[in-house]
Design goal:
The complex is a heterohexamer, with two copies of chain A, two copies of chain B and two copies of chain C.
Chain A (H helix, E strand, L loop, with lengths): L2 E5 L8 H8 L5 E4 L14 H7 L4 E5 H6 L12 E3 L1 H10 L2 E5 L1
Parallel strand pairs in A: 1-2, 1-5, 2-3, 3-4
Chain B lengths: L1 E6 L8 H14 L3 E7 L20 H12 L3 E4 H7 L4 H7 L10 E4 L2 H9 L2 E5 L2
Parallel strand pairs in B: 1-2, 1-5, 2-3, 3-4
Helix pairs in contact in B: 1-2
Chain C lengths: L5 E6 L8 H12 L5 E6 L23 H5 L8 E4 H6 L11 E4 L5 E4 L1 E4 L1 H9 L3 E4 L1
Classes of the chains: A alpha/beta, B alpha/beta, C alpha/beta.
């Protein structure tokens, strides 16, 4: 089943989230980890890019990384699912391939 | 499922090693097999026993060594990357005329072919980096 | 060594994804003993360092955010946050930890260390600095 | 070990500023011995790795760009460059080194290894890969 | 005399060049080094940002880093001066303070 | 003029150490005084004598050691950063119970106060990093 993409950098620091969204094939999934979780916040700079991409891609965010950064789940863009490390492992096994956008 | 993990950054400076550790631990606890953990680029710096992190923080090198012992993990440090960065085992020390070594328990130094093999043999390869 | 210089610590990186925020703070704490004129600037993703409610239990990493609250006790009380950086991230001052200090020249009144400034004001502050340490 | 997988090496970083481009190439060269189906993608600043006329004498660093030209001899001849990345950097194919290989199935005719593809085409190529190594 | 700013990252990878230009005080100088030299190329993504900033800031680029990346000097935005490591040292000593945008 | 240099990244992975080296060399050749070269963050990894880079590339650790010897440079590796990353001199080895050390010639391990002092004492401080 499709591809899992991980993004670990803040969209206001680097271009990885945008490149990932540009090149991820529809039907795939994107998991935001580490500083990538800032891309999941409502009302932040690239929030529209993420919202628009959600028609073709499923978005996930790593909960422990959100908590570490003091981001409560009610600040997350609607439709992004929060997963823990077990959920990360499940996403990897449910998708055929994982691509890390470094 | 058979998974492999690649780690491209050293401990502490980037979150890569932390995230990879939590991921690997979760995968093992869920019953997956970890075929190999491959340390590349600055990731080789996870394999030195000379670190002494502050007492109130995690000791990443020890965490990896302990996880490897508990689950019989194959943790490979890339030889070419290690030579550039000064990670040395007894064999490498002899070969390159070094007067000591710093490899941590559970890590072994080997070639990049081990990464390709991990890609071929594993159902999934997950890369953690900068 | 009797000379006093204006030190500016520029923080542009988010916490935990990399170590720069933590190791910058370590320099600030050591530097506080040198009786220089010290200011901190938080720009771009650096503003994320000061968010409230950081809880690192889940990632197994030390939570160093409480240290920012101790800066006032070390006479580090000039904390400049760029308004434009906050706004671009959808943040307001309420999302950040309140940082205070006691003003010894004003009967130990408790005052705010944080000053939200415009790009233009910050650019002026930078320009007045003698030593800029970037993280 | 008899199984053949599709390996995709994704290069997104400029050369020399960091080592990722060089160490990625080292993996590709070693990987070529494993008789897998290998492709390279150059995206974003990764396209800068292939520019003509690199001369590192002044920075005292090894110039590894000639190695890209040798890839064809290692049967690494599927080099995909994202058109959008090239254009965003004001580059055309003429700014890049020509990378060729000799096709053993076509009387050793010399052919281009480089294929400039759209985001959409590249997205399809990525999706078909079994193993993605990112640098 | 004013401040010297160094930028060492490509403007299509990170936001440092833009932040530097936003916050550098008029009258100061910007030196592009390492992967920052990609910001000096005519017609590239952020070339307009640089050109517009040149009314208030002097721009320099490190020649050895240009050469390493195969960028000939005729591709450089008009008005950006090419310096070598000696010129880098001179810029540091001629300006009161150096700020590195990392 | 009195200059100091701060280096935040290790050798090879980032250009910081290369650029800082070329800058420092040029400054010395122009007759400037280098008050101190301070290695912080991953920059401490410039100070290990265990590296063996490929023969056809520069040996950054040796270049720094040679420059230090020629110009009597004060090259300081931050102790806190070094402990996290496994750079050890004989004193640190004894203090932290390590069975060896890897510090390269010309480097010394000391505290962050040395960086602040460099900022105070020098006319200019130039930072090289990621």
């Amino acid at each position: 089943m499709a591809m899992l993409h991980t993004v670990n950098k803040s969209p206001t620091d680097r271009n990885t989230l945008e490149s990932c969204i540009r090149l991820a094939k529809k039907g795939g999934s994107v998991l935001l980890i580490e500083d990538g979780v800032y891309g999941a916040i409502k009302g932040a700079a690239k929030a529209d890019t993420v919202s628009n991409a959600m028609s073709g891609l499923s978005f996930y965010v790593l909960g422990p990384d959100l908590k570490a950064r003091g981001i409560s789940e009610d600040k997350i863009i609607d439709g992004i699912k929060v997963v823990d490390y077990n959920g990360f492992v499940d996403l990897v096994s449910e998708h055929d391939t994982t691509q890390s956008w470094l | 499922m058979k998974l492999s993990v690649q780690i491209n950054e050293g401990p502490y400076t980037h979150a890569a090693s932390d995230t990879a550790y939590q991921f690997t631990k979760a995968a093992l606890e869920k019953g997956h097999e970890i075929f190999r953990v491959f340390f590349y680029h600055d990731g080789v710096n996870n394999g030195t026993r000379f670190t002494t992190p502050p007492q109130d923080d995690r000791n990443l090198v020890n965490l990896w060594s302990e996880l490897a012992e508990k689950h019989n993990l194959d943790m490979v440090v890339c030889v070419a990357a290690a030579q550039r960065r000064g990670i040395v085992d007894p064999d490498e020390a002899k070969r390159n005329g070094k007067d000591g070594n710093n490899i941590a328990p559970g890590f072994r130094i080997s070639g990049l072919g081990q990464l390709i093999e991990a890609g071929i043999q594993s159902d999934r390869l997950v890369v953690f980096g900068d | 060594m009797s000379e006093t210089k204006k030190f500016l610590y520029v923080n542009r990186k988010a916490p935990y994804g990399t170590i720069y925020a933590l190791e910058s703070l370590e320099v600030v704490l050591i530097g506080a003993a040198f009786e220089q004129d010290v200011a901190l600037a938080f720009i771009d993703d650096g503003v994320y360092q000061l968010t409230q409610g950081q809880d690192t239990t889940g990632i197994g990493v030390k939570n160093f955010s409480p240290t920012y609250k101790a800066l006032g006790d070390f006479d580090v009380n000039k904390i400049y946050i760029e308004k434009e950086s906050l706004e671009a991230r959808g943040l307001t001052l309420d999302d950040l930890m309140p940082l205070k200090y006691e003003d010894e020249d004003d009967d130990w009144a408790e005052k705010d260390s944080i000053h939200v400034v415009s790009s233009e004001e910050l650019s002026e502050i930078m320009d007045q600095s003698d030593v800029v340490l970037s993280f």
